[in-house]
Amino acid sequence: AKEQGRNRFNYFTPSMQEYARYRMRLIQDLRLAVEKQQFSLNFQPIVHMASGEVHKAEALLRWHHSERGFVSPAEFIPVAEDTGLILEIGTWVFENAARQSRDWQRKYGKPIQLSVNKSPVQFRDEGENFERWVGLLKELDLTAGGICIEITEGLLLDASSGVSEKLLAYRDAGIQVSLDDFGTGYSSLAYLKKFDIDYLKIDQSFTRNLEHDSSDHTLCEAIIVMAHKLGMQVIAEGVETAGQRDLLLAMGCDYGQGYLYSKPLSAADFEGQYLAGTDV
Ligand code: C2E
Ligand code: CA
Ligand code: CA
Ligand code: CA
């Protein structure tokens, strides 16, 4: 398959030029988007499986461009990373999630934890932004655990960038840590005991065929047992069917996230569906 990919790559030089043009425009538009703040956050509930309660949500970035319409984060995050724009965007995401968490907490009298995604590039280059965020959390008087960051496995293998110290600093600031897309990156498990991680998110590639593939079933089960023994809680991603939910629940999975429960929602819709009516 790799061989085929390379041949295709060689044949289509004109489309590579097209791609380069497309990318240039995307970068220009992304710069403008940062200036004009064309972003919003959607919130997808992370459901406590045993009780069905929602005290957590993942904040997912959305870009609405006047002509392009909705641009998927899968498309623009890599470009934002290459150009460094991710740093400004990341700050916007963090600040908005922190404010939203505080506002909901005030309004409904219960803490709601919002998770923000952080790519390794952000983690490495965020520099003094971190102090700014910690200042903001204090200013907002946000409860510990109001914000969680989602990082990926690759980051933990990058010993050079002081990851360990940074994760401790996050913890000191009351920020929790999730390991995202677990099982898709490097297979070294040594880092799981080396770093203090609160949640392990089972990637949706394992949940997808859970009902029909016995090795995926075994893997999910093993991941959950291991995580619990290491003091972590487990969030299953991409839960789409009641069958998947029931199997995961029987395995002792703590949280579920996926279309079965809800798609990512606008702030107003999330509030209406999961928070309103629960205020004291
Ligand atoms: P992710 O962190 O793994 O986020 C989960 C993705 O799975 C989201 O896609 C979500 O909409 C989708 N999803 C949720 N439930 C289901 C389900 O039941 N089935 C299926 N098939 N998909 C489901 P989305 O919002 O398009 O985001 C894609 C990726 O973009 C994210 O993957 C994350 O890596 C990145 N991303 C999103 N927001 C941010 C951000 O603020 N910063 C950074 N650095 N990356 C972000
Ligand atoms: Ca994530
Ligand atoms: Ca994920
Ligand atoms: Ca722990």
UniProtKB/TrEMBL annotation:
Subcellular location: Cell membrane
Domain EAL: 23-278
Stretch forming the signal peptide: none
Name of this chain's protein: EAL domain-containing protein
Biological source species: Shewanella jiangmenensis
